[in-house]
Amino acid sequence: MFYEDRELNEECGVFGIWGHSHAAKLTYYGLHSLQHRGQEGAGIAVTDGKKVRDHKGLGLVNDVFAPKDLDELVGYGAIGHVRYSTSGGNSLANVQPLVFRSQTDTLSLAHNGNLTNAEEIKRDLESKGSIFQSTSDTEVLAHLIKRGISHTFKDNLKAALNVVSGAFAFVLLTENELIAALDPNGLRPLSLGRLGDAWVVASETCAFDLIGATFIRNVKPGEVIVINDEGLHSDMFTTEVEPAICSMEYIYFSRPDSDIEGINVHAARKNLGIQLAKEAPVEADVVTGVPDSSISAAIGYAEATGIPYELGMIKNRYVGRTFIQPSQELREQGVKMKLSPVRGIVEGKRVVMIDDSIVRGTTSRRIVQMLRDAGAKEVHVRISSPPIKHPCFYGIDTSSSSELIASKYSVDEICEEIGADSLVFLSTSGMQEAIGRNPAMKNCGQCMACFTGEYPTHISPETALPHEKDLLVSKGG
Ligand code: AMP
Ligand code: SF4
């Protein structure tokens, strides 16, 4: 399998609502608040009890939906999706929700995460006659359900959820049901809320705040929730569960105003900064954070050290995330366009520059240079996560291990590479403690795989690239 193929379903956001006459419009607002999870495509499917209609397109939520599109999406149940993909996967056929119409019914589905055994399942299904419409890994779930041998849709769904492996937060919509399901490790966040009599599910709680819904609880790992006109019914599709939510959701991805399993993301990031200050203090004049995701950690670091927090650089709001650029050259250019130093703040100063993570090293290298060009006397880099040494197979674009700077170089070598005066990463135990999840759980209920190589699910050697295989130290991996 090509690496690009494996990365078709990255960092997405899902939303669902049941029992509201403005289901599509509320989904549209919900998707707006999840826009940071994917900017390359968006879609909504809606049901009025008889028919499922959908509208989707490439681009931002605002670009995809005109008021007339939303007016046409009539119904009281809806699901929506925002999509992030890397090169190779950005075609309209892969934009979700995927909709499968048969003579008797319609199934639409949207997925956040990445299925690690999709290729094997696909090959098997194709050999049995299935024809796939997209190159998305998500489609295998629909085929597995359709091929199910039980009499009920729900039993076929539960069976299918036991065949797929990896990370999945699914929302599904039929003419008369909304369904939400989460993988046995709960790798991606998924929350349940209420808006009056309507039920709402969303990748992040910030979507509830925007539409005025109340958070009820998190969807549990291994749980499948079916919502229809009779109410909500919860069931487990497996009892073999082991919570391992993605650490990067706290560190980088989720919005600071979201709560993940009862922990506010801004508060977690601030604690990461406080912990970093304990582990790696330094004599300096100002602390600055890479906007936006590192500002909370920088505030924490400043508070704990007593060094003032300053706006040492600002972000140009109108440039997309640099990470999304498919080539290294474009990424380097992207960083330049994205951030500008505030000369008056950094000139002649010893600066502590906080970033939430180093992946390829592009951002840190550029920023250190930028701060020096603006007159900084010293630049000390502090990272509020441990070094990312292993690739992610669960839907986060942390690249192939050959591109991960920490898989090739030691911390001292990275420091030299990015041109900093000093560099320290947060420890893994410090990271877990600062986020503050349940210490009684394995790894505090977090996935730590990109830092430690200990994957919470089996990763087949086929999923890993040849040069990544020796980096797999997971269960049976
Ligand atoms: P790099 O420049 O490749 O070292 O990437 C690190 C920068 O990208 C940091 O500033 C992070 O905030 C951000 N980042 C980390 N992981 C990701 C990711 N998976 N997708 C997009 N951006 C990321
Ligand atoms: Fe998140 Fe890293 Fe685990 Fe991927 S490997 S799910 S990025 S913690």
UniProtKB/TrEMBL annotation:
GO BP annotation list: 'de novo' IMP biosynthetic process; purine nucleobase biosynthetic process
Pathway annotation: Purine metabolism; IMP biosynthesis via de novo pathway; N(1)-(5-phospho-D-ribosyl)glycinamide from 5-phospho-alpha-D-ribose 1-diphosphate: step 1/2
Catalysed reactions listed for this entry: 5-phospho-beta-D-ribosylamine + L-glutamate + diphosphate = 5-phospho-alpha-D-ribose 1-diphosphate + L-glutamine + H2O
Catalytic site positions: C12 (nucleophile)
Binding site for [4Fe-4S] cluster: C246, C392, C447, C450
Pfam families in UniProt: GATase_7, Pribosyltran
Cofactor(s) essential for the protein: Mg(2+); [4Fe-4S] cluster
Residue numbers binding Mg(2+): S293, D355, D356
Glutamine amidotransferase type-2 domain segment(s): 12-230
EC identifiers of the protein: 2.4.2.14
Cofactor, how bound (note): Binds 1 Mg(2+) ion per subunit.
SUPFAM superfamilies: N-terminal nucleophile aminohydrolases (Ntn hydrolases), PRTase-like
Annotated GO MF terms: 4 iron, 4 sulfur cluster binding; amidophosphoribosyltransferase activity; magnesium ion binding
Keyword annotations of the record: 4Fe-4S, Glutamine amidotransferase, Glycosyltransferase, Iron, Iron-sulfur, Magnesium, Metal-binding, Purine biosynthesis, Transferase
NCBIfam families on file: purF (TIGR01134)
Function of the protein: Catalyzes the formation of phosphoribosylamine from phosphoribosylpyrophosphate (PRPP) and glutamine.
HAMAP family assigned to the protein according to its UniProt record, in alphabetical order: PurF
Family statement drawn from the similarity comment of this UniProt entry: In the C-terminal section; belongs to the purine/pyrimidine phosphoribosyltransferase family.
The name this protein goes by in its record: Amidophosphoribosyltransferase
Organism: Terrilactibacillus tamarindi
Gene: purF
